[in-house]
Amino acid sequence: MRMGGLICRLKLDRVTDVKTIALVNPPYSFWSPEKNYLRPFIGTLPSLGLLSLAAVLRKRGYAVRIIESASLGLTFSQTVEEVLREKPRYVGLNCTTASIDNAARIAGAIKAVNPQILVFVGGPHITAIPEETFRRYAAFDYGIAGEGEMAFPDLLLRVEEGQRLREVESAIFREGEKVITNPRRRFMEDLDCLPLPAYDLLPFFPQKYRPPLLNYQRGPAASLISSRGCPQICTFCDRSVFGNRYRYFSEDYLMDLISRLHHGYGIRHLIFADDQFAASRSRLLRFCEKLARAGLSLRWNCDARVDSVDPALLKIMKRAGCWMISYGIESGSPEILAGISKGIRLDQVEQAVRTTKEAGIRAKGLFMIGYPQETESTLKDTLSLILRCPFDELNLSFLTPYPGTEIYAQAKDSPSFTEDWSKMNAMNCVFRPEALATGVLEKTYAKIIRKFYMRPRITFSYLNLLARSPDNCGRLAVGLARWLVGR
Description:
The chain is α/β, with parallel strands linked by helices. The protein has three domains: 3-181, 3-Layer(aba) Sandwich (Rossmann fold); 211-454, TIM Barrel, CATH 3.20.20; 456-487. Helix content is 41%, strand content 15%. The protein has helices spanning 3-12, 39-42, 48-59, 69-72, 76-85, 100-113, 124-128, 130-136, 151-161, 251-265, 281-294, 311-319, 334-339, 346-358, 376-388, 406-411, 438-453, 456-467, 470-486, and strands at residues 20-24, 63-67, 90-94, 118-122, 142-144, 171-175, 178-181, 221-224, 227-228, 247-248, 269-272, 299-304, 322-330, 362-369, 393-398. A seven-stranded mixed sheet has the order 2-1-3-4-5-6-7, with helices on both faces. Strands 8-11-12-13-14-15 form a six-stranded parallel sheet. Helix 5 crosses helix 6, helix 11 packs parallel to helix 12 (311-319) and helix 15 (376-388) runs parallel beside helix 17. The radius of gyration is 22 Å and the shape is globular.
C-alpha cells in the first residue's frame, strides 16, 4: 500500500463519539412542486459528493442521514421536516449556484426551530465565492472549500473541541463580522483510500433515482464517478473543487464498486459523471478490458471530448457495454470555440460522431448558446453543425457565467449580465451578448430544439427505444399524466 493511502486510511479510521449529521441536497431554485411532472424527463440522480462524504463520516463514527430533496421532489417544508425529524447536531448542505438560495432558506428554517444545530456548507458555489456567500447568508455557520472528505471531518473535530480554526485547511468561518477563508487543502492523491460511496444511505435507492428519460434503455440505473479533475481550460467551466490535474480511482476500486451496485442493488445501467471520462486513454483501455471480462452485461454512459476517442478505443468501449457518449461541443463556430479555449476543431467533431455511430454507440451533443462573441451568424453555424452530425440526442443550454469560471470574472461587472443566483441554472438567459437581444437568443433556442427533434430519424429512433424499454415507457406515461393533471 502506498504511504499516502496508509495515512489516509488511518485518518478515516479515527472514531469520535457518535453524533448525528444530516447531509442535504437542496432542490434547485427554479424547482417547485408544480414542476414535478418534469421529474421523469430530466432525471433524479443523487449527489455523488454527499455519498462519498457520508461514507467517510460514517467511518469516522458519525450517524449519517442523507436527505435527497432535489432528487425525491420534496417540498421546502418536507425537507425541513425530514431534517428536524433526525434531530441532528449538524447539518451539511451541498450548494451549487442554482441551489444556494434554497440551501439558505433550509438553513434559516432549521435554525428558527433549533438554533443549536450547526450548519456546514460546501460545494462549487461556496468554493468559488465563499466570502460573498457568507456575507449574504447569515444562517451558514461554517464552510469547506474544495474536496470535503478529509477537510470536513477535521473541521468538525476542531469545532467539537472548541479549538482555533485558523489552522484548519479549506475551512470557512466567521470571526465577528469578518469572513475567514483558510488556505486550501492539497488535492487528494490516492482516491482509492476513500470508502465506497454510501448508496445504502439513500432512501428508496435505486428505484427513485433515474437518468433523464431516453438516456438509458433499461434500469435500475446508478450514477458514479471514476475520476476527479479536468485537464482542459475551457473558460465557461468551474474547476475550483477538483482542479485541473486528472486523478482517477484504480480499476480494482471501480470494479468492486460496480460489482456491489450490480449484485447488491440489481443495477443494470451506469452513468459515469466524470468531467472527462476519456482523459487518459491507457487508463480507459485497462478499465474497459476489465469490465468486459467481468461479464456483468451492464450498459453505461459517459462524457468525452471529441479529440479523445478513436475507432480502436470506441470498439473496446462498446464491448465493455458503452451505450451512449455525450460530447461537449458547445458551438458550431470556430471563432467561438477558440474564444472559449475549447481546443477542438469542427472536423474532429464530425469524425468523432461518425465513428461513434459506426461503433454502435449512441452520440449525444452538448451545446450552449449566448457566448460573448455570439452573433446571428454563429448561431446559424451551431444549428448547421447539429443538423449535419448524426446525433441521437441533444442537450442545449444558455451560457451561464458561473462563479469560479473565467467567463464569470469577465462578465461580473457587465451590464449584460444579470447575476441573480436563483436564475443561474443554464435554463435562463442571464447573459446577453453584445450583438444579440435576449429575445433573439430565446427564439433561436426554441428553433434549434424544434429543428433537431422534429425530424423523422429522431422520432423513429425514440419510438424504437420506447418500444424496447418498459422503464422509459412507464416514466413517459407518469410525466404526461402529471402534466395533464397540473394543467
